[in-house]
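Please produce the structure of this protein holding adenosine-3',5'-cyclic-monophosphate.
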Amino acid sequence: MSNVEQTLSIIKPDAVERNLQEEIKNEFKRNDFIIVKDKKIHISKKEAEQFYKVHQAKPFYNDLCNYLSSGPIVVMILEKENAVLDNRNLMGATNPKEAKEGTLRNKYGLSIDKNSAHGSDSVENAKIEIDFFFKD
Ligand code: CMP
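Below is the modeled complex.
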């Protein structure tokens, strides 16, 4: 039985700043993801706070929201079989120092904050995150 899913991916400010968006999009395409929609945007701190609300109790929340709103990002809806888990595997561990060789965060990430990519962590959150950026 097929299990086609959609997930939300963000190319974060550190990667956009280094002009890596096409290279990272090509990584997704090479790994059989379809980029259903994409747009380059610059969100406000308030929008970042809303997006990362699940992390609001964490000590890194304020820095995280400042960071995501610090420069342009590319948001994408990715689609394939098992898209949520496959995207997380392709991204690698949150901390680039712990991310396996060949993963996006290993190749492009600079630090735990500047880790180049975000991906939804569940099908349920993917729906919420896709709606957040693409509801219109
Ligand atoms: P992301 O997948 O976008 O989800 C939340 C982000 O918080 C995470 O990537 C990291 O970039 C950032 N972050 C900063 N510090 C931490 C931490 N100690 N643990 C987890 N995530 C962190």
